[in-house]
Amino acid sequence: MSTTIAIDLRHVARGLGLSLSQVQAVVELLDDGNTVPFITRYRKDQTGGLDEEQIRQIQSRLTKLRQLADRKQTILRSIESQGKLTDALAQAILSANTTKRLEDLYLPFKPRKQTLATAARERGLEPLAREILAADPACADLDGRAKDFVNPDKKVPTAADALLGAGHILAEHFSEMAELRQRLRDILQRTGKIFSTRAATAESSKAAVPPAAAPASAPATAVNRQTSAAPVESDAAATETAGEAIETLVDSGPPLPESALPPAAAEPSAASPTTTAAEAAAPPAAVPSPAHSPAIAAPEAPPAEAAATEAAVPEATAPGPAAITAEAQTTAATAAAAAAAPAAAAPAVVQVPARSTAAEKRAAAKARKAERKAAEREERRKKLEEIRLKAYRDYFDFSEEVRKIPPHRVLALNRGERAKMLRVRIEGDIEAMHAVLDEMLIPPEHPHADYLRGCARDALSRLILPSLERELRRELTDKAEAHAVEVFAKNLRKLLLQPPVRDRRVLAIDPGLRSGCKLAALDQFGSLLEHGVIFLVGKPDRRDEAKQKVVDLITRHQLTVIAIGNGTGCRQTEEFVAELLANELKESGAAYVIVNEAGASVYSTSPIGREELPQYDATLRGAISIGRRLLDPLSELVKIEPANLGVGLYQHDLKARHLQASLDEVVESCVNYVGVELNTASPALLRYVSGLNQLTARRVYEHRCKFGPFKTRRQLLEVNGFGEAAFVQAAGFLKISGGDDPLDATWIHPESYAVARALLEKLGFTPSDLNDKQKTAELDQRIASIDRAALAKELGAGLLTFNDILAQLTRVGRDPREDLPPPVFKKGVLKFEDLEAGMELTGTVLNVVDFGAFVDIGMRDSGLVHVSHMSEHFVRDPHDVVAVGDAVRVWVLDVDKQRRRVSLTMLPPGTERMRRPARDEKPAEGAAPRRDQSPDAGPRPPRRDARDAAPRTGRRRPDGQPPRSDARTSQQPAAPAQGGRPEHTGRGDEGGRRGERDLGRRFSRDRRERGGPRQYDTSRASQKPLVPLTEGMKKGKEPLRTFGDLLQFYQLKQQAAQQSEEPAAADPQPPSGTAAEAAPASAAPLDSNGSPDDAAAPTTARAAAERLPAEPDASAVLPPDPASPPSPEKGVAAAVGESLSAVSDEPRDDSPPTA
Fold this sequence. Notes:
Blueprint: H1 9-16, H2 20-31, H3 36-42, H4 44-47, H5 52-81, H6 87-95, H7 99-106, H8 116-122, H9 126-133, H10 142-147, H11 159-175, H12 178-191, E1 193-198, H13 202-208, H14 222-228, H15 242-251, H16 277-285, H17 303-311, H18 321-345, H19 358-392, E2 397-401, H20 407-418, E3 422-427, H21 430-441, H22 449-496, E4 506-510, E5 517-522, E6 528-534, H23 540-557, E7 561-565, H24 570-582, E8 591-595, H25 600-604, H26 607-612, H27 618-631, H28 633-637, H29 656-674, E9 676-677, H30 683-686, H31 694-707, H32 724-730, E10 734-735, H33 753-763, H34 773-783, H35 788-795, H36 799-810, E11 840-849, E12 852-856, E13 863-866, E14 887-896, E15 901-905, H37 993-999, H38 1005-1009, H39 1031-1034, H40 1043-1059, H41 1075-1078, H42 1101-1107, H43 1132-1145
Parallel strand pairs: 4-7, 7-8, 9-10, 13-15
Antiparallel strand pairs: 1-2, 1-3, 4-5, 5-6, 11-12, 11-14, 12-13, 14-15
Helix pairs in contact: 1-2, 1-5, 2-5, 8-11, 9-11, 11-16, 11-22, 12-21, 12-22, 15-22, 16-22, 20-22, 21-22, 22-29, 42-43
């Protein structure tokens, strides 16, 4: 089927909030072969001024839509070749807008391996399955109909086997229903929780399962058969589909009954009674309970579950008492023989001469050396195991909702699972899934509903849920990896765009201990002046020689900056340099800076490093690279693969191809954003220029080496293989300083030279005036007074392009990195023992992750600024506050000397983070009102009568929304009825919306400080003080507002009853005075301020009823009603219910009540 699938760009425009014309212009420019940097800078008029990020988003979405269209074409051709393509199916495939929907539609037609269902079809059981599903009258007697399909030649020996095979066919049919999978997928995504536990180690597994000691002649029991069959383990099954996973999960599923076993394993007795339909229907239905379903549990069962599975073997397969006794006797005999074996096999004592030969001594020394190495390996293994335990201890008992888990935790769980330290599983609302199965698969009046229900349960636990769990894990991983790549890209961009150090001579030091520290003296252009090696450990005279050599290098070459790599021995080298700057070099004015040397060793051994510095060894190349990174970070860092720069989040856990492509885009963006000096750039830098690749960059470099520096940009066309298309894309990003044409030193594209010259001529200048600073200043003043729109129209240029030309004429060839703060230069050193809480420091941001930023404060280990200590306000993304390379002021928050960890804060001492006021708190004076307290909001609508609410049954709803747990009924409201608001039990109730919000906002501090997954604080919030009753409420003329009012009213009545000696009259009058004046001390607890403590008073209907006496007087509970006086026999629940009705029926506004 060759149907042309059109791509609707309106979806892309709506998704990005752009106009359709902008998206169409970008797509056309991309299809014409233009690069993203070129479109961003030189095609602004066509795109409407879109920035690079927006253009890349359009490019990414366009790629995904085209891949989806290609996949549709492939699926249509595949189904058509099978002769199963219908018009409705083709329309459904063409209208699918997601890959999941498309693959669900294709699943029934996808070629699959051998499964239980395909085996059943080969045995001719598909007609039986169709008859059962359609409730055919022919199978009204299911047992009798199943006997018609008995055929031992086709491995269907009994009617039970026929029904079992039909159940497998129906289960696979159910699992391939696209609508069912989508609804179950929605439930799992909405209600799913991800769990992780500690995985059993190899040692504990061996200890838990002792080896079997039974001899070969012992009968093979069912337990032995099951334990010998190892479950098939799929390696995360990242690309495995539901159809492909069926065979894998069959072996690891629950033990099948006798009827499911082959004839050799299960030999039915001839005297056994005839199997009924109900018994035959049990195998599909008798799958494990939802709580222990393999779809809900981890892909591989833990030892405890394996033992439970072994214990659950049917009795029919267990050996009899005689077999057990014989096996026990044989086992005991074998154990006795094994115990006697060492004594029998022990060699006789041999008399050796006292004098040992030289060979024996060497053998003994070799054995001792081997033992020592083995002990060292065991010690290293134990230390590594301890490190791994510490790294994953926060995830040994961890759970979190799937829709709320942050990306870095997903990657941490994946890493722990790969390291075999964690077992990860996903659980969902199984009851809601069962309800969906019953709703979609089982007709209400179906005669074989129980049989179909068993098949549906089997399909859910064996086929659907494992596939959906893998799909959800893969989706979580993809999102987490995309987020990690984004974090890496942001950090890499900041690292590449660090400002260069201009006009400074550098002494680069690559620290080392045993091999010494490599020195490289560089001039301001990065050329090597002199090199050497110093040793800081060992004999004292070596340290003196090192001082003399460093002082001599700095003095002779007039070096002003010392660049120290942050590798091994960095802190010892830093102390050495700081001591020199404080004594011998005190008057030199030199300073030092710590340089991130990540990837320097990779460069020193790379082909680029050997080509650039062939005459030096790898260690010296690393030192030179450290110094050049300080002089021009971008030109030096592009020589190293971005993944080796170490500024990412779990970058070693990401897919190499995805990471490499994304980071290459970042490097390309940075290189073209800064621009390249054509006559000094290396091939590694030139290959990232727009329109160039590694081959053309090499040809440009070789042409420059052969014919000398370029004089004009047009000379690029003389390079072999450099055509007009490449020139258009690349020329604007390659500048030539000191060339024949002054415009070549700017970032103006050659296609706009005519407009630039006409503009200069109109303003009274020439291109040669751009080299004169005084003329440039005059030009800047003249440009500030012109009408840009009119002049652009006159010169025939777009307004956005015209503005860029004006900017380049005023700042010729400017470097955008010069506007950033320079690196931090130091003269002293900081020790860990000197740190104290509250100490102010200046550091450099090394890495930014989701939970904070790591800052270099001049020590071996960097400090951590948690995201909660970055700003006075809430910070969602740390990248909004800091970036890699930023110089920041920090204060020491905490020092963990045992683990050598430093917690830092960017908030000055005494500063408190602003928090959102609680619901019952008044906002600060002058603060903006909350959304739910807007001054323009109208009166609050009346609450719905509790009697109108739908009754709650405690069952989970079919849509997958679980009911509220009993343990949290005091903090969350009951589930709302369909279309209504949650049931409220009073304004003071903590079950309102505030309880839900606060529950998700407050965390346990001790858990957070350990750096583990956050836990929620379920402590109750304080309540606002009671509002005294009005006179109308006391007299029964006004309705009570809350349960607090009801409690006050009851306390007033109780006080009146205690003071009165005679029984209350038929129409009693409420006593006067407020509740605070009349209530006894024991009735209302007081807080520290002497006001009623509402936190100690119950606020729900049940708690209010518990405060009442066992047999209360009705007049002490309800306002008096002259028409119908209250009856003393009326119960408490009825009284509270009537009070609720009275309160709920009244309008909630501020108008005075009527009598």
